[in-house]
Design a protein that fits this description.
Keywords: DNA-binding, Nucleus, Transcription, Transcription regulation. Helices cover about 25% and strands about 15% of the residues. It has an eight-stranded mixed beta sheet. By secondary structure, the protein is α+β, with helices and mostly antiparallel strands. It is built from twelve helices and eight strands. It binds a DNA duplex through helix 8 and strand 2.
Length: about 325
DNA sequence: CGTTTTTGACCAGCGC
DNA sequence: GCGCTGGTCAAAAACG
């Protein structure tokens, strides 16, 4: 194994956006957490505190919050193209997930980082990094309509014109036996690829609802096979399939935590169910920036104005799914 | 029989 | 230019 692998620098896919999230975070710095009217707020998970809506709810887009809120919660501003662009472009190719997942050290598992410390993250670096692969792919899709000839193979002649705007994406990790976690939506698998440096393949799913372009990628961590990494891309433009509702609502963790990626495994093990937000601290840590910290549910609730979350803008979540 | 999964092929981008 | 890689397509197979 090469050095970079050992360092876990290769886990880019699900988190290559995370860096962007980070950038998005920077963009969000002046925004407050989505002020949810009355009983709901942010994207906490249901089942724990009724005042919070479930993660699933957020995903569904049924509530006023919708994905936008979730995105916002994650530092993605649906209304901000800037954030979007920074969010979804894969400017970052490498991510030291390895540290988070397996190896990593187990430090600061219960420390609380102050908002200030995370603020330093805001320094964007790739935020304006033009449209990388994403747009290119779009081209691939749309382009080619011209050559209906033999090129029909892969080219799907998509109505060009519309410069498909970058989709917001976010990833989260789930401790689960099953790869494809039920999230309430119906997905159709459209591809599977072997993941570099990992014995586990990555599966590609698309929302089966017509006109819904949401996609998601699911792969298992090669560092910790018990962890499934799910990356959502896009925003559902429809409600949850009725048949699946209810059964999934309670599947998501009830507590929210911000955690140092390196302590993820350990942190998860101490709770029946938990949701952890992983801070995109990759290179940050190298710069001496305080590493993300773990927040208990209570701590989270106590965060004034959610300033912490706001500043930290998690790029991904860690879910522990107990079947 | 309609829908979903499987799977090999294809394409574009990137690094060398 | 070449090889590698991620993402997608689509025909065939599997499934309910």
């Amino acid at each position: 194994m090469s050095d970079h692998e050992l360092k876990g620098l290769y886990y880019h896919d699900p988190f290559q956006d995370d860096h962007d999230h980070l950038n998005g975070a920077a963009c969000m710095q002046n925004q407050k957490f989505p002020p949810i009217s009355g009983s709901s707020s942010a994207f906490n998970l249901q089942g724990f505190d009724p005042s919070y809506m479930s993660f699933t709810e957020c995903l569904q887009g049924e509530t006023p919050m919708d994905y936008n809120s979730l995105a916002t919660a994650f530092g993605l501003s649906p209304s901000s193209s800037e954030v979007f662009s920074s969010v979804d472009q894969g400017s970052q190719k490498q991510f030291d997930l390895g540290d988070h997942l397996g190896g990593g050290s187990n430090h600061d598992q219960n420390q609380v980082t102050t908002p200030n410390s995370s603020v330093s993250y805001s320094s964007t670096e790739a935020g304006a990094e033009e449209d990388s692969e994403k747009s290119k792919k779009d081209e691939q899709q749309k382009g080619l309509e011209d050559g209906g000839e033999d090129s029909k193979k892969v080219s799907k002649a998509k109505k060009k014109g519309e410069k498909k705007q970058k989709e917001p994406r976010f990833a989260f990790m789930t401790k689960s036996e099953v790869d494809h976690l039920e999230d309430g939506y119906r997905w159709r698998k459209y591809g599977q690829k072997a993941v570099k440096n990992s014995p586990y393949p990555r599966s590609y799913y698309r929302c089966t609802t017509q006109k819904c372009t949401v996609k998601k990628r699911v792969e298992r961590s090669f560092q910790d096979p018990s962890i499934v990494i799910t990356t959502y891309e896009g925003q559902h433009n429809h409600p949850l399939p009725a048949t699946l509702r209810g059964t999934t609502a309670g599947m998501f963790p009830s507590s929210v935590m911000l955690t140092p990626t390196s302590s993820m495994a350990g942190g998860c093990s101490s709770f029946p169910q938990e949701l952890l937000f992983q801070m995109p601290h990759h290179h940050m840590t190298n710069q001496g920036v305080t590493a993300p910290s773990v927040y208990s549910h209570q701590q989270y609730n106590q965060l004034p104005d959610y300033g912490l979350l706001q500043d930290m803008v998690p790029s991904s979540m860690f879910l522990k799914h107990e079947p």
